[in-house]
Design a protein that fits this description.
The structure is a homodimer of 420-residue chains. The first copy, chain A, has three domains: 162 residues, NAD(P)-binding Rossmann-like Domain (Rossmann fold), CATH 3.40.50.720; 162 residues, Dihydrodipicolinate Reductase, domain 2, CATH 3.30.360; 82 residues, ACT domain (Alpha-Beta Plaits, 2-Layer Sandwich). Chain A is 36% helix and 26% strand. Chain A has 14 helices and 18 strands. In chain A, helix 5 links the parallel strand 5 and strand 6. The longest helix of chain A is centred in the last third of the chain and has 18 residues. At the A-B interface, helix 1, helix 2, helix 6, strand 12 and helix 12 of A face helix 1, helix 2, helix 6, strand 12 and helix 12 of B. Chains A, B: One of its GO terms (biological process) is threonine biosynthetic process. Chains A, B: One of its GO terms (molecular function) is NADP binding.
Chain lengths: 420, 420
């Protein structure tokens, strides 16, 4: 019998205990052994969770319990969780976590600490979708060319509603908060930080490259308006928040931002709160993984799959998928300014003579070539210029935006969305 | 160092050898050990494959070679391949195969023969998509409610072209044969048999249920016409060949046939030669896996992933994903006649008075309720009735079709396509 201790019995933790009980028949058949939750750590011992497991508010009751084989870390946060899982590994207990922030900061230290002990984290990226499994095992024969993913259900829900129902950003944000899809402070989701944590984890498995959230380009969806969405529709695009990892020679781009993406792409067809991750391998080509990125049961499904894996075979795969120096030792993170992309820009200008000519000149001066341009009235005396460009360097676009912003007939900072 | 022997160095076998060489850097980092192909078995020793491995035309040169750790079986066929892999397992060699027909017939025998030895078969279903991995490991916490998949790229290519370009079935079949997507005798693909082999493999992992191809409902796409496709479009459906496994109480339905499926479903959005498999678990909900279902490199990507898995950890998972009696011991195969579905029918009738009334009466007599009905001229003196029904039993539909076929004003066997 395998005994599990859960540190943090909230929504996901309760689901983990419930699944291990509800589905004990298939789980024990698949694991080859019975798996039970022995105890759980909670902050508030007085709240009834409807579970028949021993609850404690002392983490050490689990860490020091020699009967417990697997510690499930669902407490969240970075440093405190790091101390807890280190202690668990030191006492020889396998660890399963859903904590993406912990991994975004400490995955390489954990990889070396967990040398011979299983440390699994399927639920940390894209909830119920077994994307870690796919990338680390299923696609292991490939050099990964790119990963492109809808990794945040909140943003995808908001973009879908703005696209399908014509709702304004502020209204759909309020609705998402009421539905429980977005937090009271939504920055972590809508600012792209949640997706960035997940992207960093996937990039380590794919490339062995190390980076922290502060090293990479992270932008959110806060500036997207109905104007942008109608431009996107007109030219056959959807707007999505994507996490992108892309290898280019010996460099890897890592970035999270809103994107215009052609409607024919599979990833553009993923709507609502669902997540989807497209991976291109040099041998297999494109594969895509779709499913629920959040929710207690979906996330717990991934946690329990890790528990079953460990029960089956202990440690069967290196934590990040490699045991010897990987490509990462040769690869470097591409500087943001060297990223190449097509761009979409929305520039609000006063409706005066000569404006278009001046703007066009600035594009040319910065080596940026315009693909399409639309002018639409924004108010009685201002207009929006909606412009898409051919491929350009990020540094050139940024310099140009500064130049444009400084013009007296430009009313606000131009909004830029990258096109993939 | 791990040494591999490849039995059957054709398109996929050549790709396997090539990938192990081309991607040796990431492969050895991920496997923790170098992997090389020592030798391969071919029928014709004179053909140059551009590979620097020893070739032989004697299978025993590999089976008796004590240096070879992993045998890759790519010879195809059922009984001969079965003998070869049995011999490999007996001599303690791990086996990797892409042979779906072998597994469709012998997977349970192989599961017991391979008790302590790794036997892997990721490439046998959906080529480069790691669906075995997902179902056996990633979703192991779930009771599987259903599997619904586009498992045959040839059929999906043909249906997509018929839908998008208005091409007739015979023309697109000819084009598919010229492109190499379809065989000279296309029955194995267009008749649904290829998809059925794959479905049986997935159903074993999901349910532990045993069945052979001859036990289940298998139909192809041969009767689909432009008439059906235009009906489908008009009512918001796509037509796809699907493999379906569905649990209903203590019974499991297993069936392969053309389907009308709502265009909003993710699986309906998968076009061209691509494969896609949707799995619904009781805890995780729907996840979907998309990618190339065929092709030398894509298939070899899955074969090499299995080799890496074995190099990492030997046997880490039971072959079919369970060690103790699974649900399959409680579950039985649902009799085809008891399947419930909505149906679409195309009935070619002589254009006479009273025809509609008589047909409608027969629907009623068989407990089948009509949802929509269209009548369209087919020739100068005949018409097609295009009818969709509410949910009905397969036995009632089949009885009704016989009754309708016998009517003197009905010109040919009615065509029926199930709606999912």
């Amino acid at each position: 019998m395998i005994k599990v201790g859960i540190i943090g019995v909230g929504t996901v933790g309760t689901s983990v205990a419930q699944i291990l009980k509800d589905n004990a028949d298939v789980i024990s058949a698949r694991a080859g052994v019975d798996i039970v939750v022995k105890s759980g750590v909670v902050k508030n011992l007085n709240k009834d969770r409807g579970l028949d497991i021993t609850l404690t508010n002392n983490v050490d009751d689990i860490l020091d319990d020699s009967e417990i084989d697997i510690v499930v870390e669902l407490m969240g946060g970075v440093e405190e969780a790091f101390e807890v899982v280190k202690k668990a590994l030191k006492s020889g207990k396998a660890v399963v976590t859903a904590n993406k922030a912990l991994l975004a900061y400490h995955r390489y230290e954990l990889q070396s600490l967990a040398k011979d002990i299983a440390f699994e984290y399927e639920a940390s990226v894209a909830g119920g979708i077994p994307i870690i499994n796919a990338l680390r095992d299923g696609l292991s024969a490939n050099h990964i060319e790119s990963i492109m993913g809808i990794m945040n259900g909140t943003c995808n829900y908001m973009m879908t509603k703005m696209t399908n129902d014509g709702v304004a950003y502020d209204d759909i944000l309020k609705e998402s908060q009421e539905l429980g899809y977005a937090e009271a402070d939504p920055t972590f989701d809508v600012g792209g930080f949640d997706a960035a944590h997940k992207l960093l984890i996937l990039a380590s498995i794919a490339y062995g490259i190390d980076a922290k959230p502060e090293d990479i380009l992270i932008e959110g969806i806060q500036n997207v308006t109905q104007e942008d969405i109608s431009f996107a529709k007109e030219f056959g695009y959807a707007i999505k928040l994507l996490g992108i990892a892309k290898k280019d020679g010996n460099e890897v781009e890592l970035r999270v931002h809103a994107c215009l993406i052609k409607q024919e792409e599979m990833i553009a067809k993923i709507d609502g709160v669902m997540n989807g991750i497209s991976v291109v391998g040099d041998k297999v080509g494109e594969t895509l993984y779709y499913g629920p990125g959040a929710g207690g049961d979906a996330t717990a499904s991934a946690v329990v799959a890790n528990i079953i894996d460990i029960a089956r075979s202990g440690k069967s795969t290196p934590m990040l998928g490699f045991d010897r120096p990987m490509e990462g030792s040769k690869l470097t993170l591409k500087a943001t300014q060297n990223i190449e992309s097509k761009y979409y820009l929305r520039i609000n200008v006063s409706d005066k003579k000569g404006v278009l000519a001046k703007i066009t000149k600035i594009f040319e001066d910065n080596n940026i070539s315009v693909e399409t341009m639309l002018q639409r009235p924004a108010s009685q005396d201002s207009a929006n210029l909606l412009i898409s460009t051919h491929v350009a360097y990020e540094r050139d676009i940024q310099a140009m935006i500064k130049e444009i912003e400084a013009l007296d007939f430009v009313n606000s900072t131009p909004v830029m969305i990258r096109i993939v």
